[in-house]
Write a structure and sequence with these properties.
Layout lengths: L3 E4 L2 E2 L6 E2 L13 E6 L7 E6 L4 E7 L2 E6 L4 E6 L4 E5 L4 E5 L6 E6 L8 E2 L2 H9 L2
Antiparallel strand pairs: 1-9, 2-3, 4-11, 5-10, 5-12, 6-9, 6-11, 7-8, 7-10
Bound molecules: thymidine-5'-diphosphate.
The site of thymidine-5'-diphosphate (TYD) has 6 residues, from β4 and β5.
Length: 133
């Protein structure tokens, strides 16, 4: 399965807009954890790794950044810069976050609790893992 952009509801209002997400509804998993990445210095790269089980949904709540998703054979880059859509990433894909703008805020909704053993941090190990799927 591939990573894809998912739009979430947006209530436009002169008082300010409102968006929301419900687990198993707007995104295809139950939310077990939420974390966020912020105060990223210019030029830094986050998240060069893959997950065996964890699925996630990444939103640029503020500012912008790119997420590069790599299946081992294909690479796709997604620009996130609005708070009413996000990127759904199934498990088993290598992903990196780059080009963070000043004051950007990346929020990540995750399908699992933090689990060190779910990470694949070595790219060659990732390629081996993919070849066995
Ligand atoms: P890490 O996943 O390595 O960041 P990146 O996605 O940029 O590779 O996480 C950085 C540190 O934060 C790492 O030491 C583990 C810790 N951490 C938690 O304790 N809980 C979490 O939910 C996450 C995402 C990270």
């Amino acid at each position: 399965m591939e990573a894809k952009i998912i739009s979430v509801p947006k209530y436009e209002d002169p008082r300010g807009n409102l968006s929301f997400i419900e687990e198993n509804n707007h995104i295809p998993f139950k939310i077990e954890r939420v974390y966020w990445i912020y105060d990223v210095p210019g030029g830094q790269v986050r998240g060069g790794h893959a997950f065996k089980v964890q699925r996630e949904f990444i939103i640029a709540l503020s500012g912008s950044f790119d997420v590069v998703v790599d299946s081992g054979t294909d690479k796709q880059s997604f620009s996130l810069n609005r708070s009413y859509y996000g990127l759904y990433i199934p498990c088993g894909l290598w992903r990196q976050m780059t080009n963070f703008s000043t004051n950007s805020l990346a929020v990540v909704l995750s399908s699992t609790k933090y689990e060190v053993s779910d990470y694949i941090r070595d790219y060659n190990e990732f390629l081996k893992y993919r070849s066995k799927l």
